Amino acid sequence: MVGACVVAAVVRSLTAHAPGPTRTLSPAERLEVGRAAAALEPRWRLETVHRFPGDCWSADDDLGASEWTWVREEAGRRGVPVTEIFRAIDQDLHAFPVVPPRKSNACPCKPRPFYG
Q1: Distance between CA atoms of 19 and 100, rounded to whole angstroms?
Q2: Phi-psi category of residue 46: left, alpha or beta, with phi > 0 → left and psi -120 to 50 → alpha
Q3: Cα 74 from Cα 36, distance rounded (Å)
Q4: Is the pLDDT of residue 116 over 70?
Q5: Which of 42, 104, 36 is CA-nearest to residue 71?
Q6: Who contacts 101 (Cβ-Cβ below 8 Å, separation ≥6)?
Q7: Interatomic CA distance for residues 37 and 42, integer angstroms
Q8: pLDDT digits 0-9 by tens, 81-106
Q9: Which among 46, 43, 38, 45 is positioned nearest to 85, based on CA atoms?
Q10: Domain residue spans of the chain
Q11: Torsion over CA: 24, 28, 29, 31 (sign)
Q12: What is the pLDDT of residues 42-68, one digit of tens each?
């Protein structure tokens, strides 16, 4: 029985197809994605400030969740890995001045004395 499982596993591994190369964004697409994320960030920040007034760290964390959702959707629409979308956002942050409410850093973590 164990031998049959081993043979099946070896046959399966030898006949499996490796995924093809992933598509990457062109420089123009990367610029478009970066600018789109920059345009959405003020709205995301405003929403998170309303959900977490006075708690900068939680607001930044919530912003990250909004960004992550958008990144996954954008990667799916464009047929690219999420790393391509994050790379476009990163390049945009380096290429253009960061003007508030947009920022390129995170608030320091301030753990609560209790969680309840």
Answers
A1: 41
A2: alpha
A3: 10
A4: no
A5: 36
A6: 41, 42, 45, 46
A7: 9
A8: 999 999 999 999 999 888 887 777 77
A9: 38
A10: 30-98
A11: positive
A12: 999 999 989 988 888 888 889 889 999
Q: What is the DSSP string of the chain?
A: -HHHHHHHHHHHHHHPPPP-PPP---HHHHHHHHHHHHHHHHHHHHHHHHHSTT-HHHHHHHHHHHHHHHHHHHHHHHT--HHHHHHHHHHHHHHS---TT--SS-PPP---S---
CA 95 vs. chain centroid, Å, equals: 19
**Residue bearing tokens 């047929």:** 79
**What pTM, to 2 d.p., does this model score?**
0.73
> Distance (Å, rounded) from C-alpha 61 to C-alpha 111?
13
Say if residues 108 and 57 touch (Cβ distance below 8 Å): yes
The amino acid present at 74, given as its one-letter code, is: E
